Amino acid sequence: MVAHLSRLARLGLTDEEMEVILPQLRAILAAVDRLQEADVSGVDATAQVGGLYDVMREDQVEPGLTSQEALSNAPSHEAGLLRVPAIQ
Amino acid sequence: MSLLDLSISELGRRLRAREFSSVELTQEALGRAGALDGNLGAFLRTTQELALEQARAADRRLVEEADAPALCGIPIGHKDVLCTRGVETTAGSRILEGYRPPYDATVVARLARDGAVVVGKMNCDEFAMGSSNENSAFQTTVNPWDAERVPGGSSGGSAAAVAARLAVATLGTDTGGSVRLPASFCGVVGVKPSYGRVSRYGVIAFASSLDQVGPLAKTVEDAQLVLSSIAGPDARDSTTSPAPVGDLSRALHEGVRGLRLGIPREYREAGLEGGVRAVFESACRWLEAEGAELVEVSLPSTEYALAAYYVIAPAEVSSNLARMDGIRFGPGEPAAPSLLEAYELARNRGFGPEVRRRVALGTFVLSSGYYDAYYLRAQKVRTLVAQDFSRVFERVDALISPTAPTPAFRLGERTQDPLAMYATDALTLPANLAGISGLSVPVGFSSGLPVGLQVLGPYLGEAVCLKVGAAVERAADVWHRVPAGFDG
């Protein structure tokens, strides 16, 4: 299970790290299993606690971050673009 | 006696009477941080240059503007999950080391608009996940009342700095109790506004349906002044409520006569430590003496709230933290041989144990085949928790309980047992699930450690929380106590 989650979430866990986290996740899942006891028949899932939905406005054009600002924290960039290792 | 012992309104009077300048006040705060924070660990960094520049501007405004805002010239600190333009903002995580946001969070901008002076960025649990501040990747903040104990989390640096008088007020964020809990543990006031009362724009996200920014301060009035500055609709956060905030200061002096206050039976039975129970009973008697009527109420879904929270919050974490990939910000792993390895290396090196646990857990509860049993079910239980509150608020004006079952616990006591750490927030996190308002106000001590009273109000009921908080603060009369070693 943990190897699959580590891959899905790009956590890159080592075998040792997986051994540590597995019993912890099991214990947490056992605790949250409490949910199965609650009677939720006919209850709607919460969507938004403030009761807001479909908040719309007219599109407005206004200045945002410059390309330079947006790239200012990137560890690697080139010619105004993010640079990343090759997809293999 | 330090200037930092004074309330915001008293500091404001003296600033306007030219007894001292904002620059002098700011230098005192920075001087105290330099001298006293070495052992406390509340600041991840001080922002001396920015602070003095803002203080000089505030001094000019105090001369030129007869009606300068109440916060003009007042030294404050920001939890390190709040983006501050050009100032390193890490959320307590290695994965954001060196990140300098190109913009300000709305709350940061609003406090700047009102002339507040930023003296630094406050330590916190990594991405605000934790109840002790021990999950910060950089340093451990200790409790100013007992250096062997935790300050609470996740806004632990924010709470400790106010208690130790290193900042007049600070901002924190509260996703399951992260403002109220450290406020209780450190003996300061902390407000968790209703969901949508304060903008989350520029707040590094933990769980977007639960996160709210709130003030930490010495007094209820100070907290109100900060809340009034940051609250209200924001075009940059479509989840902010369009409802006007109104004048929250009026609530401070109205008293509790005629108010009906509910005590949730389930919170009273939550394994309260003896000293906490005794302080809570005193607070109840004071409120009765002030004219409030106390009634017992029931929130029957409380027993499922913790479980629902630890499905919903990690689910949102797994989604929100997907953006922490080392490509656009943070040190990253640009020399990795492939993109996949760059992601995995950056995240493995960048995330601490608690963040990994929650990302893995959230990925699990959202994964195909488990979604209905965990996430969907938790969102239904969330509705039940919210309905519990709606039902009791038809009968009572506000709810009161201890903020936490115990005072501050020892460093290391709960780090090996995630479930014990999670249970710390049992009395605070239901309010986040329901999106209602709340605060913690110091009301006494148990074996020398501060104990907070939690006041919960309805959705957008900040005024009633402040009203009850101010009344019990007057009766308790403990806000001016300063922890030993910080009282010079």
Structure report:
With 88 residues, chain A is mostly helical. Chain A has three helices and two strands; from the N terminus they run αααββ. Chain A has helices spanning 2-8, 15-32, 67-71, and strands at 77-78, 81-82. In chain A, a hairpin with a 2-residue loop joins strand 1 (77-78) and strand 2 (81-82). An eleven-stranded mixed beta sheet of chain B has the order 1-3-2-4-6-5-10-11-9-7-8, sandwiched between helices. The termini of chain B are close together. The model of chain B has no long low-confidence stretch (mean pLDDT 97). Classes of the chains: A mainly alpha (88), B alpha/beta (488).
Characterize the main sheet of chain B: 11 strands, mixed
First and last CA, distance of chain B: 6 Å
Helix content of chain B: 25-40%
Distance between the termini of chain A: 25 Å
Fraction of residues in helix of chain A? 25-40%
Strand content of chain B: 5-15%
Task: Give a quick summary of the entry.
Chain A is mainly alpha-helical and 88 residues long.
Q: What attributes does this structure have?
A:
heterodimer; A: 88 residues; mainly alpha; two-stranded antiparallel ribbon; 2 strands; 34% helix; B: 488 residues; alpha/beta; Amidase signature (AS) enzymes; 11-stranded mixed beta sheet; 11 strands; 39% helix
Task: Walk me through the topology.
The complex is a heterodimer of chains A (88) and B (488).
Chain A: H1 2-8, H2 15-32, H3 67-71, E1 77-78, E2 81-82
Antiparallel strand pairs in A: 1-2
Chain B: H1 8-16, H2 22-40, E1 43-46, H3 48-64, E2 75-79, H4 106-113, E3 117-122, H5 156-163, E4 169-174, H6 180-186, E5 189-192, E6 212-217, H7 220-230, E7 260-264, H8 265-268, H9 274-289, E8 293-297, H10 302-320, H11 339-350, H12 353-366, H13 372-392, E9 398-402, H14 418-423, H15 429-434, E10 437-446, E11 449-457, H16 462-476
Parallel strand pairs in B: 2-3, 2-4, 7-8, 7-9
Antiparallel strand pairs in B: 1-3, 4-6, 5-6, 5-10, 9-11, 10-11
Helix pairs in contact in B: 2-3, 5-6, 10-12, 10-13
